[in-house]
Amino acid sequence: MISRWIPESERSFNASFILAGYGVGAFISFITSGVLCASDFLGGWPSVFYVGGLSGFFWCILCYLFIYERPKDHPTITSTELKFISDHLGIIEQKQIKKIPWKSLLTSVPFWSLALGYFGQFWILGFYCTVQTLYMGTILNLDSITNGEMSSVPPLARGLFACLCGYPADLALKKGYVSKAFIRKGATVIRGEGGSSLRKTASVALNHRSCTWSLRKGRENEIN
């Protein structure tokens, strides 16, 4: 879909902007989850599942109503917009759909390298999202709202970092400094290693701040 809507010279930024939704979505989820858990709305913590499920349902409806696979199929696109997209995309070949080469795919070393890399990245991301909040709640004894606010910082940083990297990649590709393959491989490495390092740094900083906050709070309680 991206190849049919976005010119190649702007594709890196727009793709990174779209993928930044992972981080921004996690940021919003942590913030709202902390507030909902601290409230009496629909029983407190169960409301996180109700609100999250309904939000996903309505988001799917919006995507169904407003997202189209091809520009020419969009009912509100103007002729000027359609001409701009067509002129900058160039000719897209309509190739005949072929059978998936499962044997070549399952015996491909690059495929398994990428698959294992993404599996490790998202497994660690899921583990972090669960354990980080659990640590702040049970060990540091932070309340739900503060826990949600502090847990939301690393994914927000991830989303912002993704957006900042997209424009320089488009510019370097447009100027001919690097090849398309270099951009894609470099972005994969930076997204994996850089994102992991960023999350670790943010987690350490937040935990240090949380520990200081908890010690200060405990000291105040002892004095009082």
Automatic annotation (TrEMBL):
GO cellular component assignments: membrane
Pfam families reported in the protein's UniProt record: MFS_1
Alphabetical UniProt keywords: Membrane, Transmembrane, Transmembrane helix
Keyword Transmembrane: yes
Topological category with respect to the lipid bilayer: Multi-pass membrane protein
TM region positions: 12-36, 48-67, 105-128
Subcellular location: Membrane
Main subcellular location: membrane
Molecular-function annotations in GO: transmembrane transporter activity
GO biological process: monoatomic anion transport
InterPro entries, sorted: MFS (IPR011701), MFS_Na/Anion_cotransporter (IPR050382), MFS_trans_sf (IPR036259)
Name this polypeptide is given: Putative sialin
Organism: Nephila pilipes (Giant wood spider)
Taxonomic lineage: Eukaryota, Metazoa, Ecdysozoa, Arthropoda, Chelicerata
